[in-house]
Amino acid sequence: MEMSAEIIAHAPAFVLVAETAADVAAREALLDRAMGPKRKTKSSEKLRRGRRPSEGLAFVARDASGAVAGTVRLWDVTLGEGGAAALLLGPLAVDPSLKNAGIGSALMRHAVAEAARLGHAAILLVGDAPYYERFGFSAARTGALAMPGPYERHRLLALELVEGALDGASGTIKAAGRRLKAPTLAA
């Protein structure tokens, strides 16, 4: 039995690449479509505001035409006052028309692998445990941690990339890392 080339042609093809400055508008439009206007009011957003993603940890998925089909970024945070460094993952989003094509899973696996390769010890996120458990995330190590602002405690999940990285971690998660450059005003 011959496999039809037509069937293969309909399989969504995508490639994961580092996000570039040229992706900003497409990424923001994708996040608006996938998450809606309330996305900018979330506690995680407070930790990202005014910051740049952790060096080398912002990715997009491009479809066959080169358009941004998915996005994930990781951010530098500290675990409590003077606590250990960690990463905060998010947002993870895929174009709603491409859901269930494996793009989100591929972005997650790539982001976790790159964070580990770059020597980071732990990743936290706020999300649905049933989805993120398959990547090793759970709420088991986040009980003494808190987000700045409202959040659902059972949705604060973590993954240790280095065993014991979250031992003793407590307090409110704080933004760290690179700040966005302030726009310069023309005189």
Write the layout of secondary structure elements.
Elements: H1 5-9, E1 14-18, H2 24-35, H3 43-48, E2 58-63, E3 68-79, E4 85-89, E5 93-94, H4 103-117, E6 122-126, H5 129-132, E7 145-146, E8 156-160, E9 171-175
Could you say what the CATH architecture is?
3-Layer(aba) Sandwich
Structural class determined from secondary elements: alpha+beta
Helix content: 10-25%
Straight-line N-to-C gap: 71 Å
Uncertain spans: 1-11
What's the gyration radius in Å? 18 Å
How many separate structural domains? Answer: 1
CATH C-level class is Alpha Beta
Beta strand %:
25-35%
- Please state the average pLDDT score: 89
**At the fourth CATH level, what is the homologous superfamily?**
Gcn5-related N-acetyltransferase (GNAT)
Tell me which oligomeric state these chains represent: single chain
Task: Provide a descriptive summary of the structure in words.
The chain has 187 residues and is of the alpha+beta class. The protein has one domain: Aminopeptidase (3-Layer(aba) Sandwich). Helices cover 22% and strands 25% of the residues. It has 5 helices and 9 strands. Strands 1, 2, 3, 4, 5, 6, 7, 8 and 9 form a 9-stranded mixed beta sheet that branches. A hairpin with a 4-residue loop joins strand 2 and strand 3. The chain starts with a helix and ends in a 12-residue tail after the last strand. The N terminus is likely disordered.
